[in-house]
Amino acid sequence: MSFDDAPIDPVSAERLVRGGLELRLVDHDDAAARDAWLHADFRGFHESAPSPERLAEVRAHAPRRRITGVYDPAAPLPAEPVATAQSWVAPLTVPGGGTVPLWSIASVTVAPTHRRRGVARAMLEAELRTAAAEGVPLAGLTVSEATIYGRYGFGAATFADVTEIETKRVRWSGPDASGRVRFVGPEQLLPDALRIVDAVRAFQPGAVRYDEVLLGRAIGLYGDDRAALRTVRYDDADGVPQGFACYRLTPTEGDFTKHTVTVQHLLGATDEADAALWRFLLELDLVSTVRAFERPVDEPVNWWIGDLRAARRRRLDRLWLRILDVPAVLEARRYAAATRLVLEVDDPDGFAAGRFLLEAGADGVGHVRSLGDEEASAEASVALPVTELSAIYLGGVSPVTMARAGRITEGTPGAALALERAFAAERTPWLVLEF
Ligand SMILES: CC(=O)SCCNC(=O)CCNC(=O)[C@H](O)C(C)(C)COP(=O)(O)OP(=O)(O)OC[C@H]1O[C@@H](n2cnc3c(N)ncnc32)[C@H](O)[C@@H]1OP(=O)(O)O
Predict the structure, then answer these.
(1) Which among 159, 280, 335, 435 is annotated as catalytic?
(2) Which of 79, 228, 247, 412 is buried most deeply by CB count within 10 Å?
(3) Residue whose CB lies within 8 A of the most ligand 1 atoms, among 84, 148, 321, 434, for a mutation test
(4) Which keywords does this Swiss-Prot/TrEMBL entry list (predicted)?
(5) For the chain, what percentages of helix, strand and coil (3-state, to nearest 5) are there?
(6) Which residues are documented as binding site?
């Protein structure tokens, strides 16, 4: 189903009109309107103005999205929006391997000339109301600053590490892979990379479907990275591609033996593929540091390098989620322990507010029933804002820690621990590829 043309939210449109501004959909096929929108988007993130060639390249390789802009008819450049956003719906893998449609939001910018007068709030609220009106139960985004989105009910649900390894200290102690690592061109890699990403997505909670255009950009098929990126593929003993890595090398001035490898992506459908690719990168000659971005927080590499302190990791929040429909998202995932719990959810914007009885059996299947205001329940209960429920939803944030932090209130002693046991995921959630 396509949501690209879902109508503009009338509440936000009306609020912006009162400030002399217009909220509009941008037609994907209107090149001039999209170029003007891209100019605003680039400026919003402090990037240089895109050249005509860059605009043509981005237009040619951009997935179809629901693009919105806020326009100021009184501005000297009225065709260029003063605020931008884009959204699309993609499946998010949840614990147990099922998926939930995710209203994914990106490119939220407001021009410095129009900031702090409620334009971003109007756009974000419009996105959430539109998603809910279209029946999409969950919204998600990655953030530029961790202070912006909590006020709209988003909570950080997945994390990733920037990992830096001193290669001169590494003594490989991981598995000896039975397959081969090979150099491949990005054109050759793309179909295999798509299969590998999909294979990982099937078992990895927190993964969001990544379309072909974005994956092509990620592996250097087009975009600025093309010349600098090296791409390798891991083929298992039967010759089946099971993983890939994309990296670039930077020399250290004055010492040719100390290049830094920056790993853009390293993704294996099997642990053996991950191990083989890590080993390949860590054993490159003339290299002293391997720095890898967006790594899963529970990957085994620390136990493959023979010296735990050769690796330094810095953790960052990645996917922020915002639940819009509590029963729909809770019933889509599986539970690690049988449970009967009442969740009292506070949501100032109304979408997710209510009291919900969650019952999960030993088979992991959950059933959710909304309780009436007066309906008594003898079950253990927790009270929590929608931000916290969204944060713990994938099992990557501890309800016990949230209770200790005062963000979740136990109605019954031990209820946070029961929630933690039920919400545990088979793997720590990981977004896999950032959007
Ligand atoms: C999913 C994504 O795309 S993430 C990318 C976000 N975009 C950027 O970082 C680009 C640079 N920044 C911007 O373009 C703008 O400053 C934005 C989009 C972050 C905010 O736009 P504005 O129109 O100024 O925000 P608006 O006036 O609607 O403020 C809404 C609320 O957010 C708060 N807020 C706005 N910007 C920030 C910020 N950078 N940090 C913390 N709080 C903020 C405001 O104080 C206000 O709070 P309140 O409603 O609780 O009083």
Answers:
(1) 435
(2) 247
(3) 148
(4) Acyltransferase, Transferase
(5) 30, 30, 40
(6) 108-110, 116-121, 144-145
pLDDT at position 226:
73
Q: State whether residue 6 is helix, strand or coil.
A: coil
User: Quick one: pLDDT band at residue 195, thresholds 50, 70, 90?
Assistant: very high
Within 10 angstroms of residue 65's Cβ, the number of other Cβ atoms is 18
3-state secondary structure 152-171: HCCEECCEEEEEEEEHHHCC
Choice from 41, 84, 87, 109 to test ligand 1 binding pocket (greatest atom count within 8 A of CB):
109
Active-site residue, 435 included: yes
How far, in Å, is the centroid of ligand 1 from the Cα of 120?
Answer: 6
Q: What percent of the chain has pLDDT over 70?
A: 99
What's the average model confidence in pLDDT over 240-262?
Answer: 97
| Tokens standing for residue 265 | 């992506």
pLDDT band at 427; cut points 50, 70, 90: very high
Residue 172 pLDDT more than 70? yes
Size of the chain, expressed as the number of residues it contains: 435
CATH number of the 10-136 domain: 3.40.630.30
Q: Average pLDDT for residues 99-111, to the nearest whole number?
A: 98
What are the domain boundaries of the chain? 10-136, 160-317, 325-423
